[in-house]
UniProtKB/TrEMBL annotation:
The name this protein goes by in its record: Mediator of RNA polymerase II transcription subunit 4
Molecular function, one GO term: transcription coregulator activity
Biased amino acid composition, Basic and acidic residues: 238-290
BP GO annotations: regulation of transcription by RNA polymerase II
């Protein structure tokens, strides 16, 4: 770089010396002046390259300093990690005895929160169950059935004397028990008569035997708020600043502006067509007037040519034969 700049300065000095010599001899040379300008331009280019070179050198030195600082920081971090590793290895491990409270890796509150979040996806909708209790019923035994049936309740209500014969007690039922049997029989028959057959239940309840899904289906997920957010992100719109009402107003405004532009274009086109139509009508009228004027001028000339022979010598001339008068009218028709 130094050699290049020295050569540029030397060329400038030589060009100046040649120019000064020519001017001292009162014979200035244009070639010498151009040489000075050219040498000066080369010198400026060299100075610009020198500036770029110095800037690059400064940047390289700055990068070297940053590299050295980062190397030192990396070495310090590695040394600290090594020291920490040695300290961790030197620490004696602690053995914890398992207790009853630490049997599960979660707390009761966490379990309740989880159950509350998934509760709406773990039971079928009310329309599917039709209000039926889905809890499993306890199995019944023959003893329970005999104790809970009509005979059992009747025996318990009557045979309280101990040692009495069950058959004798059953032969004389109490009045209250007899009334209850009489009232239950019509209700059971009425329920059986009003209950729909199995093949008609789907017609009344569309959700009868409907499939139940523990989690939302993919269609419902795609139609939810998260899917709408993802659609906005895919279109390059920030959901935090997205305003549906503002977007709707913007679309309405764009639609109104488009309609106004179309209306203006239509009006301009109609105005242009009207002007062109008026221009064509005006040109047609001008041509018609010019044609009529030419016809009138041609008729006057022909009349003058017909009357000219009869006016010579101051005596009235003879009129032309009748057959020649029709020729002028034929000529007029041909010109038309």
């Amino acid at each position: 770089m130094d050699k290049k700049l020295d050569a540029s300065f030397e060329r400038v000095e030589k060009a100046l010396a040649v120019l000064i010599d020519s001017m001292s001899k009162y014979t200035p040379s244009e070639k010498a002046a151009n040489g000075v300008v050219k040498a000066q331009r080369e010198l400026f280019l060299g100075l610009e390259e020198l500036e770029i070179h110095q800037r690059n050198v400064a940047r390289i030195r700055q990068l070297e300093q940053e590299t050295e600082a980062l190397d030192a920081q990396t070495k310090q971090t590695i040394s600290a990690l090594w020291e920490m590793r040695k300290e961790l290895v030197a620490v004696a491990p602690t053995k914890f005895t398992p207790t009853k409270e630490e049997k599960y890796p979660f707390t009761t509150q966490q379990l309740l929160d989880y159950a509350r979040r998934i509760s709406r996806n773990t039971l079928p909708p009310p329309g599917v169950t039709n209000g039926v209790d889905l809890s499993p019923a306890a199995p019944t035994t023959p003893d329970d059935q005999s104790a809970g049936g009509p005979n059992g309740s009747f025996a318990n209500s009557i045979g309280g004397g101990g040692g009495s014969d069950p058959g004798t007690a059953a032969s004389t039922p109490a009045p209250g028990v007899q009334d209850s049997f009489v009232s239950q029989a019509p209700s059971q028959s009425l329920t059986g008569a009003t209950e729909l057959p199995v093949h008609l239940k789907p017609a009344v309840n569309p959700l009868e035997n409907a499939p139940f899904f523990t989690f939302p289906t993919i269609d419902r997920i795609r139609s939810g708020a998260l899917a709408q957010y993802q659609d906005l992100v895919n279109r390059g719109i920030d959901p935090k600043i997205y305003d549906p009402e503002e977007e709707e107003r913007r679309l309405k405004q764009e639609e109104q502006e488009r309609k106004e532009a179309e209306e203006r274009a239509r009006q301009e086109m109609e105005e242009q067509e009207r002007r062109m139509r008026e221009e064509r009508e005006r040109m047609a009228r001008e041509r018609e007037l010019a044609r009529q004027q030419q016809q009138q001028e041609g008729g006057i000339d022909r009349r003058g040519s017909v009357l000219a022979p009869g006016q010579g010598g101051g005596q009235p001339g003879r009129s032309a034969p009748k057959q020649f008068t029709f020729l002028d009218e034929d000529d007029d028709d041909d010109e038309d």
